[in-house]
Amino acid sequence: AGIEFGLGAPYAVEYHDGLSSTNDRARALAAEGETDVAVVADEQTGSRGRLEREWVAPSGGVWVSILTRPSVAPARAPLFTLAAAVAIADACREVGVDATIKWPNDVLVEGSDEASEGGDPVGRGGRKLAGILTEMEGEADRVSWLVVGIGVNANLDAETLPAGATSLRAERGGDVDRRRFLARLLERYAELADDPDAILPAWRERASTIGRRVRVETASGTVTGRAVDVEPPGALVVETEEGRTRVHAGDCEHLRDA
Ligand code: BT5
Questions:
Q1: Which end of the chain has the lower number of beta carbons within 10 A, N or C?
Q2: How far is Cα 202 from Cα 126, in angstroms, rounded to an integer?
Q3: What are the protein's UniProt keywords (predicted)?
Q4: How far apart, in whole angstroms, are the C-alpha atoms of residue 211 and residue 231?
């Protein structure tokens, strides 16, 4: 592995040609007491999405996991997932791809494939360009380590990705400089992580979920209604027939307006 300082400051960037999962490598570094490291791999063979789902990560993407030890309560950790989504959306916009955020952790290029057309959950409400997997360990009142895993389909053909996914190459018709893209992504993430109060306002501006009809699958059931806001530390506020409810975690689909 190569280590580089300076690129994407304030993190030291550790490069690998191939890894099982950059999140697993970052967690191993956490166990060794490290912090402020971004682990990057050209290719991942065992990368994960949420709920142990598979994440497809061939050579050509931007696969990175950022290990930090922010001095916040564990309950605030979801904010960092939102910060990553903002950083991804901004880095994509800078290379000419109009990315928006679907709560909580998908970065999409909006399309017309809403859930009512059925099919694979990938990309409902748009074509999925990137995903985020946040893992952490906390003590009672403080995060001990936080790993924010970011996968951006950069220089990949859509045919090599799951149905409903897209890539920067497919959207802009050309490759990006992955080194530069990574540097911008890390810088933007660091900026937001440093100023947690700026995260939610920035997230709201880039979100396509707010104002939409949604269906959210949560551990305790399905919530259907209109998404009206996001509240700290990242809960989706949904206006249902029974009134307002806050959803802390789940899979969200955008629905066609009835
Ligand atoms: C996510 O999960 O979207 C989080 C993905 C995080 C991946 C990064 S890469 C660096 C780091 N190291 C890791 O091991 N993981 C992180 P979720 O919301 O559960 O979505 C997963 C679903 O997205 C899968 O079930 C597929 O349907 C779909 N999918 C898989 N690979 C994809 C890809 N490359 N692009 C778009 N969709 C994909």
A1: C
A2: 20
A3: ATP-binding, Ligase, Nucleotide-binding
A4: 14
Residue 242 C-alpha to ligand 1 middle, in angstroms?
A: 33
Q: What does the pLDDT average to over 241-257?
A: 92
Q: Domains for the chain: give ranges and CATH numbers.
A: 2-209 (3.30.930.10)
Write the residue with the smallest CA distance to atom 20 of ligand 1.
49
Each residue's pLDDT tens digit, 43-93: 999 999 998 899 999 999 999 999 999 999 999 999 999 999 999 999 999
> 136 alpha carbon to ligand 1 midpoint, in Å?
18
Q: How far is the CA of 131 from the centre of ligand 1 (A)?
A: 5
103 CB within 6 A, ligand 1: no
128 ligand 1 Cβ < 6 A: yes
Determine which residue's CA is closest to atom 7 belonging to ligand 1.
151
pLDDT by residue (tens digit) across 187-219? 999 999 999 889 999 999 999 999 999 999 999
Query: Is the bond leading into 10 cis (omega within 30 degrees of zero)?
Result: yes
pLDDT digits (tens, 9 = 90+) for 102-113: 998 899 998 754
Report the half-sphere exposure of 190 (CA within 13 A, side-chain side): 16
Residue 56 near ligand 1, beta carbon < 6 Å: yes
Look up tokens 């059925």; give the residue.
118
Q: In the beta sheet, which residues pair with residue 131? A: 106, 151
Q: How far apart are CA 60 and CA 90, in angstroms?
A: 20
Task: Give the type of residue at 20.
Answer: S
- Residue 166 near ligand 1, beta carbon < 6 Å: no
